[in-house]
Design goal:
The chain has 224 residues and is mainly alpha-helical. Helices cover 59% and strands 4% of the residues. It folds into 2 domains: 145 residues, no CATH class; 48 residues.
């Protein structure tokens, strides 16, 4: 990952309009190129902020708190719940299981940073929760639900934007749908000429058939 400057700070803060950037940067990322040591430090700091932000939003979603042992896997699943995806609902769990040691390590540091900043507390039973009153936690839970909803709406609009700005986006998405869902979609000549209309048509059909998913909560009893 190379960069001339660090990712937008607003997209990696509580002011982020959605989870798009910090959700992706909170996954396992490798630096294959960087301009200089200063650029490397900026990128590493941005990745660290992304992990902390993902954990913070996830804990805001859970007013009752969560055992420390579940923070890593639920944080991995958080960004998947913020988007409709063609992958199966178990995608987040499979990703966590593949990189479990890595995610436990980085989210251990994220929890430590949140505790040090006073944003969360850990009780004697090892349960992490926001360092605010119960009433404020419930308000944050509502805010988190609204954030997830907004992220999903923006993700749908981003799909439409990508059709216009991403070269061969339709071929990329068709291949992804076939790979993850086993659904082969052939576009007619007319659909290829009117890609936005074709995308809307197939999106609505897949959604109606339940072929799009939002990754479920991994370790808790609640489920979408």
């Amino acid at each position: 990952m190379g960069s001339q400057r660090a990712p937008s700070s607003s997209a990696l803060s509580n002011a982020a309009p959605d989870s798009y950037l910090f959700g992706r940067l909170s996954k396992r990322v490798a630096l294959v190129f960087f301009r200089d040591d200063r650029a490397r430090r900026q990128i590493v700091a941005a990745l660290a902020r992304s992990v902390v932000l993902c954990a913070s939003w996830m804990l805001s979603e859970v007013p009752e708190g969560l055992p420390i042992s579940e923070v890593a896997q639920e944080s991995v699943g958080f960004s998947y719940r913020c988007e409709e995806r063609v992958e199966s609902a178990s995608r987040a769990q499979k990703l966590f299981e593949t990189e479990a040691d890595h995610f436990r390590s980085v989210y251990h540091h994220a929890v430590a940073a949140l505790v040090a900043s006073g944003r969360i507390e850990v009780d004697e039973g090892g349960r992490a929760k926001r360092s605010i009153s119960d009433a404020a936690r419930r308000v944050e839970g509502t805010d988190a639900a609204a954030f997830i909803g907004r992220s999903r709406r923006r993700a749908r609009w981003r799909w439409l934007k990508n059709i216009v700005t991403f070269e061969d986006w339709d071929e990329y998405m068709l291949a992804k749908i076939e790979r993850h869902r086993g659904i082969e979609i052939s576009l007619s000549g007319r659909e290829r000429r009117h890609r936005l209309l074709a995308a809307a048509r197939h999106y609505l059909r897949l959604r109606r058939e339940g072929r799009l998913s939002r990754s479920r909560v991994i370790g808790r009893s609640a489920a979408e």
